[in-house]
Amino acid sequence: MTTELGRSAAGALLRDWRRRRNRSQMDLALDTGVSTRHLSFVETGRSKASPELLLALADRLEVPLRERNALLLAAGYAPRYQQKRLDDPAMTRVRATMQRMLALHDPYPGVVIDQSWNVVLANEAAGRLASALPPDLAGPPLNVFRACLHPDGLARRTLNFPEWATYLLGQLHRLKLLTADPAVAELAEEVRGYPDVAALGDWHSAARWPGAALLVPWHVELGGAELSLFITLTVFGAPRDVTLAELAVELFYPADEKTADVLAAWQARAR
User: Fold this and answer.
1) Computed over its alpha carbons, how large is the radius of gyration of the chain?
2) Which of 108, 150, 159, 220 is spaced 20 to 30 A from 238 at the CA atom?
């Protein structure tokens, strides 16, 4: 009975991820190298998939490592991916590398964010941006979506809020679909309730900006100066740890010389 329940639970999870990715059974079966019939039996619990098959299917469906462990556990197998805290001694080299990246990025802001875009590491320049936030939004943890979209946060200082908010909402929507993380879904629901976000209406259609630039900049007024910034996101290649798989390095760059000069001047004054 327990084995049958495990097969059924694992099959239901697998079917849910396949539907989330808009993949048909035939398409996924061909991509993985199994028969459609066998995949159907796995999803309905009539057949027990090996851990190797489950991981192969999860890989084709781009299932996050955390959820791959859940899939294996549901099928009665041990998890394959470890999860260490960022302050674990085994993570010393990785943490030091990220801290070095952030330090070298000064005087431009840089942060390390987790799956929900909570800031786990930040450089001094990012701290200067965060100093404009009220205490209830400054954290910990400081969440990028709350900080930038809440009407009491940086939203009131953002000069191109509809455009910048549309980009952030798109990222949050994508995270919700890709991760199936309840915390991300709860955050998305919270953000949609902000008055300034609700006022955007159908933000999907607002994403079509006439004469769009190569990148969506963030125009923000801070300390009496107007800043124009764009961002890059960097993730770890081939992670085998859940924590590492969910981390990204977000670096802000000046979009014009004026912004570069202002950020350099702020750094000089701070030191």
Assistant:
1) 22
2) 108
Domains, the chain, in order of start with CATH, read 2-74 (1.10.260.40), 89-270 (3.30.450.180)
**CA distance linking residue 238 with residue 127, whole number of Å:** 30
The enclosing H or E element of 162 equals helix 161-179
Alpha carbon 241 to its chain's center: 16
Give the integer Cα–Cα distance in Å for 87 and 80.
21
Give the distance, in angstroms, between the CA of residue 81 and the centroid of all CA atoms in the same chain.
Answer: 19
Which amino acid, one-letter code, is at 189? E
Distances (CA, A) of 146 to 3, 96, 150: 43, 27, 5
The model's pLDDT over 60-95, given as tens digits with 9 standing for 90+, comes to 999 999 999 999 999 999 999 999 999 999 999 999
Secondary structure letter of residue 142 according to DSSP: P
Cβ proximity of 220 and 229 under 8 Å: yes
Cβ–Cβ contacts within 10 Å for residue 157, how many? 18
